[in-house]
């Protein structure tokens, strides 16, 4: 397994992230993490709201220093408490302390805002996160499931006020669901954010074993097209559909780190294999599922080639 830099931090993380949301057995968790580590993986993902995941992860890890552990807060700690959820300082502090206890560690490597809370000002969240970084309880911060303008504004605030900026973005992204290519992925590339892509196999649709269990009658046109494409390419290059789907994500952007939710060591063995997709295969996968970036991206791209907008030399510019 190869490694990539996490945002603009210099932190080295594996090109695959192991999602531990479905961990429910300590022995199986230990075996899965060991297989991931043997394959070169070092980036683990969990959240305060993922049941016993944090506790199992804390009990299963033997070499804490060898792993980059990411967890999240925002989601409710107590459904009856109006302050038991949200991105404000009170929930952040209480959620963080609970996660530290569960994970049996004195710091979180990457602490994620789980989802944008429109009722909490960004200034409140960014300042509270920065305080925990300065206290040594968090090393880096990221945000999950938020609009591009929210992330951009948050990092601008951090830059102006010398607070810790977001280094990572966690969003759904796969061959079936490519919405991230409209605003979120371009923003992440410009701001230097790493993108951990959850549901990279479209909830198992694009995986080998799961694909065989899918009832074709229940699939949409897009899902049919994506599944047929990954199966076809996989057969041609002697790979599995999962490996093809993950390789497509990695080729789409060097910022993308697929987040795989393996349940056992066998699944790690399959998904940890890195394959190189030929250019022709990438073109076929890209065109298999109808996708348009829409306005303003498509309109701006068209204008960039227009003499009316940028003069007669518009098509002669070698852009960076």
From TrEMBL:
Keyword Oxidoreductase: yes
Keywords: Oxidoreductase
Domain NADP-dependent oxidoreductase: 15-289
InterPro entries: AKR, AKR_Detox_Biosynth, NAD(P)_OxRdtase_dom_sf, NADP_OxRdtase_dom
One matching Pfam family: Aldo_ket_red
Protein name per the record: Aldo/keto reductase
Native source species: Allokutzneria multivorans
Lineage: Bacteria, Bacillati, Actinomycetota, Actinomycetes, Pseudonocardiales
């Amino acid at each position: 397994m190869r490694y990539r830099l996490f945002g603009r931090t210099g932190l080295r993380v594996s090109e695959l992230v192991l999602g531990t949301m479905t961990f429910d057995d300590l022995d199986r968790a230990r075996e899965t993490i060991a297989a991931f580590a043997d394959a070169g993986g070092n980036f683990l993902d969990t959240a305060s709201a993922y049941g016993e995941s944090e506790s199992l992860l804390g009990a299963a890890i033997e070499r804490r220093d060898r792993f980059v552990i990411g967890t999240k807060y925002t989601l409710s700690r107590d459904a009856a408490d109006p302050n038991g959820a949200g991105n404000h300082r009170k929930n952040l502090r209480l959620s963080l302390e609970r996660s530290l206890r569960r994970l049996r560690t004195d710091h979180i490597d990457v602490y994620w805002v789980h989802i944008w809370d429109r009722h909490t000002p960004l200034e409140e969240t960014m300042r509270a996160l920065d305080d925990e970084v300065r206290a040594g309880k968090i090393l880096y911060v990221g945000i999950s499931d938020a609009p591009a303008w929210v992330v951009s504004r948050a990092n601008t605030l951090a830059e102006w006020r010398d607070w810790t900026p977001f280094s990572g973005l966690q969003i759904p992204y796969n061959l079936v669901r490519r919405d991230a290519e409209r605003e979120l992925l371009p923003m992440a590339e410009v701001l230097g954010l790493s993108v951990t892509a959850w549901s990279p196999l479209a909830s198992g649709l694009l995986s080998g074993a799961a694909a065989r269990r899918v009832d074709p009658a229940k699939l949409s046109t897009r899902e049919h097209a994506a599944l047929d494409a990954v199966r076809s390419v996989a057969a041609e290059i002697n790979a599995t559909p999962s490996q093809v789907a993950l390789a497509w994500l990695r080729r789409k952007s060097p910022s993308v780190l697929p987040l795989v939710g393996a349940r056992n060591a066998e699944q790690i063995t399959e998904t940890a294999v890195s394959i190189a997709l030929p250019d022709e295969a990438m073109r076929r996968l890209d065109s298999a599922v109808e996708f348009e970036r829409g306005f303003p991206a498509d309109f701006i791209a068209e204008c960039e080639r227009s003499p009316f907008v940028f003069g007669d030399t518009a098509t002669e510019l070698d852009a960076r």
